[in-house]
Design goal:
The complex is a heterodimer of chains A (about 375) and B (about 525). Chain A has 15 helices and 2 strands. Chain A is an all-alpha fold. The two termini of chain A are about 25 Å apart. In chain B, about 35% of the residues lie in helices and about 25% in strands. Chain B is globular and about 70 Å long. Classes of the chains: A mainly alpha (about 375), B alpha/beta (about 525). At the A-B interface, helix 9, helix 10 and helix 15 of A face strand 4, helix 11 and helix 12 of B.
C-alpha cells in the first residue's frame, strides 16, 4: 500500500496529471523529432545504409549552400500559408483536412486566369491572378462550410472528398481544356507569361515573394488569434462549444469565417506555387503541402512561432527526400514516411501532457478494474 | 461487532491531501454519518473503502480482519455496496436488465427469477419498483431505488450512500429513511455521506466529521446541537447564522407567456404552457428535482434555445427569437448550472473567462480589438469584490475550487450590472463560506432593484432567500406564492407534481379559452 515500496518494483502505471504539463507540451514535439530520427536511423540501417551518413544526407546536406536555404524558404512558404489557415480551423476544432484541395483549386483557378490574361501586361495582371487564386480556394472551402453549417456534414469527410474532386478536376483540366496545344501532348498548360509570375527575391534563385505572403499571413493570423474578439471566439468554440453557445457566439458564422480564411490562404499558397517555381499548370503541382501543413500545425503546438519552425522542418523533409533519392538512390517517398512518423510520434508523446508514467507494482487486474470503475463514474 | 474499521488512512493527490490519518469504524447495524463540506474528502474515503482508489498509507479491517481491497468487484464480494451520487444506469434498458448487468452471471439465473427477486426485495423494503420499466421513464428517486435494490440483492453488509438525498423531494427522503432504518434493524451497516445536518441528526446513530481531509470530530448526533455539528464541519472562521428580509417586487421585468417547448433530444423535458412573471427587486425561486424541465426553461430564457417572439418578454420587449448576446445586451445575465464546461472554459485563464460573457461591457473596442488592460482590470475587480481565491487573473479556470469558480462566475455576471439575473443551483456543491457570500450577493443585487430568478433543489436555501416560490414538475409550473405563505410540505407536493386543484382548473379553463379563441 505504501508508495515507498512501489519504487523497488517493476511496472509502469499511467496516472492522470492534476493539471496539464506545460513543460511536456513543449517537450513533446522535441521528443517526437528525436524518436523520428532514431526510427529513421533504423530504417536507413535496414535499407543497408550507414544511419548517420544517411540522416546527414536527409537533414543536413540540403542546407550546405545558399541555394539550399532559398529552396527551404520556397518550400516552407506554402506550408506556412496553409498552416496559418488550418490553425484557425483547428483552434475551433473544425477538422479541415481540405487545405490540399483548396491549394489545388487556388492553383487551378488562378492558373486559368493567368492563361486568360496571357497577352496582358502590367502589375495588375499578377494581382488579378493571385487574388483570383485565393478567391477560388476560398470558394472551395465555402463548399465544406455550407455542408457543415447547413446539413451538419462532418467536415473531415467532406474536405477529404473535396480534395479528390479538386485533384481530378486538375487532371481533367491539364489533360483536356487547359492542355498546351503546342506542348507535344504533355499533360501541362502553356507556360505563364512573365507578367503573371511572382517576382524573385534573388537573381538566379527560385525563392520569390510568396515568402512575404507567408510571413504576412503569420503576423495577421497571430494578431487575429491573440488580440481580437473573433480569435477569442474561435478559441472558445474549440475549447468548449457549450460555453460558446452560452456566451452567445454565433457558431455557424465562426465556422464559415474560419473555413473561408483557411481556403483563401491555401488558395494563395496554390497560386503562388504555380506562378512561382512551377510557372504553368501540370498534374504534379502539389507535393502534398496541404496535408503536410496539418502536421505543421500540430507540431507547432498551434502557436504561430512553433508553426514557423515546424514549417521549416517539414520543408526540410521534402528536400531530404529528394536528396536521398539523388545521393543514395532511395525512393523519394521517404519524405512521406518521415512526415508520418513525426505525426504519430507526436500524437503518442502528446499523451504525456495529460498523463504521467508512474513506476508501480505490476498488478494488471487492479488497474483495469480501476480504470473501468473510473470510466463508469 | 465492528463491521469495518479504517486506521490512519492517508491519500495524497498531486497538490492536495484528500485524506490525512483518517480513522473511522462502523458497527454492524449502525447508521454512521460521514459529514463534511464539499471537498472535505468524503468521496475519496468512500472510494477507498469501495476499492476504487488505493490509499497511500493506512490499514483497513473488514469484520476484524486486515484486508486490502483490490477493486470494486472485491468490495462487492466482501459485501460492500455503494450507491454513487451519479447513477451508473443504462437509460434505455429496463430495471431488471440493468440489475442483471451488474450481478455476477452465477447470481442472475433466469430473468424471471431475477424479476421475482427484485419485486420481493423492493416490496420488503418499501421501495416499489417495476422490473420491466425502462430506466429513463423512472424518476430520479426511483432510479436511486434501482441502485439500492441492486446492492441489496447481493446480501450487502455495508451500504455506502453518497449524498443520496440531494436529488430527492422531501417526501422521497422520508421513504428512503424508512428503508434505511429497516435495513439497519436487520443488521446491515450503513455509511451515509452528507453535508445536511438535519438529515444526519434525524437518521444516524453516530457521525464522523471531516474537514479538509482530517477527522475533526466524532459524536452521537442526537446528543449535540446543530451548531456544534456545523462548527466541526466548517471550522471557526465561518459565520453560521443567516437571516434575510423578504421584499415585494416592483414592476414586471421578465415574463414568460404560455411558453411551450418540445425538445429534439428524447431525454430532455418538454415544457407545457409555462407562464411566469418576474418583478424588479424580488428573488423568485423555482424548486424542482433535476430533469423536470427547469434546465430547458433556463435555456429558453437565456436565449440558448429560442421560441416564438412574444413568449418571452424582457422589459416590455419580445425577445423569444433573440440569441443570448442580444438578450445580454438588454441586461439579462445568466449563471448556468454547469460551472466548468459551460459557465467557464476549463483550460482558459480567468481573464479569458471574464471576457467570455462580458465582451459587451467595454472590454472590446468597436472593431473587435480586445482591450487587454480593461479585461485584466475587470477580472481583478471580480477577484477582489467576490473574494475569489485564485493564483491571479491568469490562473486556469479548472484550477479553482467549485466554490471559488462559482463566486467568479456569479461575480462576472453581477459586475455586468444586470436588470435580470437568472441562476441555476447557485450554491450547489459549494462550501458554506462561499454559499453565504453568494446569497449575500444575490440579496444585494435584489436590493439594487434587479430581478433574480433562481432554480434550485435546495429547499432550505430557497426558503431562506426567495421572496416568492413555485415548483416545477414534468415541464409544468405550479402556482407562485409568497414564501411566507407556503409550507415546506406544500412545496414538496408541488415538486412532485401535485398542484392545487384550483390552479389546475383555472389552467384548463384558460386552455379551453385559448382553444375557443383559435376556433373563432
Amino acid at each position: 500500500m505504501s508508495s515507498q515500496r512501489s519504487k523497488h518494483l517493476f511496472g509502469v502505471r499511467l496516472e492522470k496529471r492534476a493539471s496539464d504539463s506545460r513543460w511536456m507540451a513543449y517537450c513533446s514535439p522535441l521528443l517526437a523529432i528525436l524518436l523520428t530520427l532514431l526510427c529513421g536511423a533504423g530504417i536507413f540501417a535496414s535499407l543497408g545504409h550507414a544511419p548517420g551518413a544517411a540522416l546527414y544526407t536527409f537533414f543536413l546536406q540540403p542546407l550546405e549552400d545558399f541555394y539550399g536555404w532559398t529552396e527551404l524558404g520556397l518550400k516552407a512558404s506554402p506550408l506556412l500559408l496553409c498552416a496559418m489557415g488550418l490553425v484557425l480551423c483547428f483552434k475551433a476544432k473544425i477538422w479541415n483536412i481540405g487545405a490540399e484541395g483548396q491549394f489545388i483549386i487556388g492553383a487551378l483557378g488562378g492558373g486559368y486566369m493567368a492563361l486568360q490574361l496571357d497577352s496582358m501586361e502590367g502589375p495588375w495582371v499578377l494581382f488579378a491572378v493571385v487574388a483570383f487564386g485565393a478567391l477560388c480556394g476560398m470558394l472551395w472551402a465555402a463548399l465544406a462550410a455550407l455542408l457543415k453549417t447547413r446539413f451538419a456534414c462532418n467536415e473531415i469527410l467532406t474536405t477529404i472528398m473535396l480534395n479528390y474532386i479538386a485533384l481530378n478536376w486538375l487532371y481533367y483540366s491539364v489533360y483536356g481544356p487547359l492542355k498546351d496545344p503546342a506542348g507535344y501532348n504533355f499533360p501541362e498548360s502553356a507556360l505563364f507569361s512573365d507578367s503573371s509570375l511572382l517576382p524573385l527575391l534573388f537573381d538566379g534563385y527560385r525563392l520569390n515573394i510568396s515568402l512575404y505572403f507567408a510571413l504576412l499571413a503569420l503576423a495577421c493570423v497571430w494578431t487575429l488569434m491573440s488580440r481580437t474578439l473573433f480569435g477569442f471566439q474561435i478559441a472558445v468554440l474549440g475549447e468548449d462549444a457549450s460555453a460558446a453557445r452560452y456566451a452567445g457566439f454565433k457558431q455557424n458564422r465562426l465556422v464559415w469565417l474560419a473555413l473561408l480564411v483557411c481556403g483563401a490562404l491555401a488558395g494563395l499558397a496554390g497560386i503562388s506555387e504555380v506562378t512561382g517555381p512551377v510557372g504553368q499548370l501540370n498534374a504534379n503541382i502539389s507535393l502534398g503541402y496541404g496535408y503536410a501543413a496539418i502536421i505543421v500545425v500540430f507540431l507547432g503546438r498551434m502557436h504561430p512561432v512553433g508553426i514557423l519552425f515546424a514549417s521549416v522542418l517539414l520543408a526540410l523533409t521534402f528536400m531530404g527526400g529528394e536528396m536521398v533519392q539523388m545521393e543514395l538512390t532511395l525512393p523519394k517517398s521517404l519524405t512521406g514516411l518521415f512526415q508520418g512518423m513525426l505525426l504519430f510520434f507526436l500524437l503518442a508523446c502528446d499523451f504525456l501532457i495529460g498523463y504521467q508514467l508512474q513506476w508501480s507494482r505490476p498488478n494488471r487486474k487492479i488497474s483495469t478494474v480501476d480504470i473501468a470503475q473510473k470510466a463508469q463514474e | 461487532m465492528t463491521r469495518i474499521e479504517l486506521n490512519r488512512i492517508t491519500k495524497r493527490y498531486p497538490g492536495c491531501v484528500a485524506n490525512r490519518d483518517v480513522s473511522l469504524s462502523v458497527d454492524g447495524g449502525e447508521i454512521h454519518a460521514l459529514l463534511g463540506e464539499n471537498g472535505a474528502g468524503k468521496s475519496t474515503l468512500m472510494k477507498i473503502i469501495y476499492g476504487v482508489v488505493k490509499p497511500d498509507a493506512g490499514d483497513l479491517f473488514w469484520e476484524g480482519e486486515h484486508v486490502e481491497i483490490r477493486g470494486a468487484g472485491h468490495a462487492r464480494g466482501l459485501g460492500i455496496g455503494m450507491v454513487f451520487q451519479h447513477f451508473s444506469l443504462f437509460e434505455t434498458l429496463t430495471v431488471a436488465e440493468n440489475i442483471a448487468l451488474s450481478l455476477p452471471a452465477s447470481e442472475v439465473g433466469s430473468m424471471d427469477t431475477l424479476k421475482a427477486r427484485i419485486t420481493e426485495v423492493s416490496v420488503r423494503y418499501g421501495m416499489r419498483l417495476d422490473p420491466d420499466r425502462t430506466v429513463h421513464s423512472l424518476s430520479i428517486g426511483e432510479q436511486q431505488r434501482v441502485e439500492i435494490v441492486r446492492c441489496l440483492l447481493q446480501n450487502v453488509k455495508l451500504l455506502i450512500l453518497d449524498e443520496p438525498t440531494s436529488v430527492l423531494t422531501p417526501q422521497e427522503v422520508e421513504t428512503l429513511f424508512a428503508t434505511l432504518h429497516q435495513l439497519a434493524a436487520e443488521g446491515c451497516s450503513i455509511l451515509f455521506i452528507s453535508h445536511k445536518l438535519d438529515e444526519v441528526i434525524a437518521l444516524c446513530d453516530r457521525a464522523t466529521i471531516l474537514r479538509a481531509g482530517q477527522v475533526t470530530g466524532e459524536c452521537v448526533p442526537e446528543q449535540v446541537s446543530v451548531e456544534e455539528l456545523a462548527r466541526m464541519m466548517v471550522g471557526d472562521e465561518t459565520p453560521l447564522s443567516e437571516n434575510y428580509s423578504k421584499k415585494d417586487g416592483g414592476e414586471i421585468l421578465l415574463e414568460c407567456r404560455k411558453l411551450n417547448y418540445r425538445p429534439e433530444d428524447p431525454f430532455a423535458s418538454a415544457l407545457q404552457a409555462i407562464s411566469l412573471q418576474l418583478k424588479a427587486g424580488e428573488i423568485l425561486g423555482i424548486a424542482g428535482v433535476a430533469g423536470n424541465g427547469q434546465e430547458e426553461l433556463m435555456r429558453l430564457i437565456s436565449g440558448e434555445e429560442t421560441s416564438a417572439a412574444d413568449t418571452v418578454v424582457l422589459n416590455g420587449r419580445s425577445i423569444g427569437k433573440d440569441g443570448p448576446a442580444k438578450r445580454r445586451a438588454q441586461g439579462l445575465c445568466v449563471v448556468p448550472e454547469e460551472r466548468l464546461g459551460r459557465g467557464a472554459v476549463a483550460d482558459m485563464s480567468l481573464e479569458n473567462n471574464a471576457l467570455l460573457t462580458a465582451y459587451q461591457s467595454g472590454l472590446v473596442s468597436g472593431n473587435g480589438w480586445l482591450n487587454l488592460g480593461q479585461i485584466r482590470k475587470f477580472t481583478q475587480r471580480i477577484l477582489s469584490r467576490f473574494n475569489v481565491k485564485a493564483e491571479g487573473s491568469l490562473a486556469q479556470a479548472k484550477s479553482l475550487s467549485g466554490g471559488n469558480l462559482q463566486k467568479f462566475i456569479l461575480g462576472r455576471e453581477i459586475l455586468q450590472q444586470p436588470r435580470v439575473l437568472i441562476c441555476s443551483h447557485p450554491t450547489w456543491g459549494v462550501d458554506i463560506g462561499a454559499a453565504i457570500l453568494i446569497r449575500h450577493a444575490l440579496i444585494e443585487l435584489r436590493d439594487q432593484g434587479a430581478a433574480v430568478l433562481m432554480v434550485s433543489e435546495d429547499i432550505d436555501e430557497l426558503f431562506m432567500i426567495c421572496d416568492r416560490l413555485c415548483g416545477i414538475c414534468d415541464g409544468r409550473l405550479s402556482p407562485v406564492r409568497k414564501t411566507g405563505d407556503l409550507s415546506i410540505n406544500e412545496l414538496g407536493q408541488w415538486m412532485a407534481g401535485q398542484f392545487d386543484v384550483e390552479s389546475e382548473l383555472s389552467d384548463s379553463i384558460t386552455d379551453s379559452n385559448s382553444i375557443e379563441e383559435q376556433a373563432l
